[in-house]
Amino acid sequence: MKTVSGGDQQALVSRLMQACGGGYTPAQRRKYFITGPQWAAAYEGQALFHAPTRKPVGFEEVIRHFEEIGIGHWTTHDTDVIPTDALGTERQEETVGAIRKALDKHGLECSMVTTETFHHAVWAASPAAEAPEVREYAKWRLANTVKIGHQLGARFAVYWPGSLGYQVQGAIDETQTLKWYAEGLNHACEADIALAREYKRDTLKHCMEAKPFEPAAEILLPTSDAMLAFIFSGLLKHPEMVGLNPEYLHELMWGAAPRAALARALLCGKLWHFDINDGYRLKHDVDIAVGLVNPLDWLNVLVLLRTHGYHGPFNLDYKPPRTTSNHGVFSVSFPTAVDRFITLWEMAGEVAGDPIIHEAVAALKAGAGANPGEGAAALAEANKELLTLHELISHRIFQILVGAHQGRVYAV
Ligand code: DIG
Ligand code: MN
Ligand code: MN
Fold first, then answer.
1. C-beta of residue 291 within 8 angstroms of C-beta of residue 344
2. pTM of the model
3. Contact status, residue 108 vs residue 99, Cβ threshold 8 Å
4. Residues 156 and 111: beta-carbon distance below 8 Å
5. Max CA distance (Å), the chain
6. How far is the CA of 275 from the centre of ligand 2 (A)?
7. How wide is the angle at C-alpha 317 spanned by C-alphas 26 and 92, nearest 5°?
8. Between 118 and which of 96, 125, 163, 234 could a Cys-Cys bridge form, CB atoms 3.0 to 4.6 Å apart?
9. Which value, in Å, is the radius of gyration of the alpha carbons in the chain?
10. In this predicted model, what pLDDT tens digit does every residue of 295-314 receive, in sequence order?
11. Superfamily of domain 22-326
């Protein structure tokens, strides 16, 4: 094959994207509660050992591209769009006004805002630092984000305490640090009650996001389960205002089954927001786009969510690989992530409605009709063939994943 020079490279990428087919129209994509983070679209490919590979992208450009793709909602950190030292100043008001205008111009909504409490040096000892002045500043920042959320019409506020932990154990008292963190959340919720009244809106849904490590070596609220314990600990003044924003990979990376973690959140009525991405078990937070690593696991996750009435937000919190160009972020990365999600979501609907699976589940729930008093050996014997249906159900889900249930066959 001959070399592909600069100008021909984008043409080749777009021709092969066409050849892939399977894309949905922007109108079809907007039917789903899919949200696009400013920080994901503007991610420049940098990391601890990596220099950026892409140019910066402002919110106007991101919002315009999201409209073109068919992503109807935009999300942001406060400092994705307002420099830390401009927060609380006239420049913040101007920026929020400009964002409002861009959203209106392109027909998008802001669904979620979140406070950056991990990147700036002020968070070196986390937003629940020993220094009271840092904690007071953190409270102000959290309340400021809630205000921005109301000004932009958001319905959710996310809290990702990635720095709430330590590199070296023993320096902090975990119980005290968690109590201080609760004070910050309490302040944000109290501020929200007042701001919601001022803006004549409902209070936001405050969604906590867990992650087991990175940037802190050990994070004090590492899993969604730990956050459920924190919400119900009695430390929060308004636990009814606080729920979860699980991130798929943040559960997978410590070895959990994301679907089971989501099931526990559903049982508590606290699955309010969901960051969707993909990656590898027991590895770092690589934030790959949804469906590129674990499509079968994702199909099972979406079957659970569909059958329990969770229809979004689905927040595309991922990092386009540093190999993808600025043009590729919006011509390949985001559209294909949206399309894989929609395909998996619709497949999940087919699983949920599949007659073979329905009959197998009904048979398993009916049981063998044996008498419990017959004892363990007799009960095991009575059900042993029925339990083969577990593997059959799993095979049927695989068939739906590859389209075999619609008669698709592979050449043999
Ligand atoms: C940190 O990587 C990102 C996401 O994981 C999280 O959803 C967001 C909120 O702080 N920041
Ligand atoms: Mn996230
Ligand atoms: Mn992540």
1. yes
2. 0.96
3. no
4. yes
5. 77
6. 5
7. 90
8. 163
9. 23
10. 999 999 999 999 999 999 99
11. Divalent-metal-dependent TIM barrel enzymes (3.20.20.150)
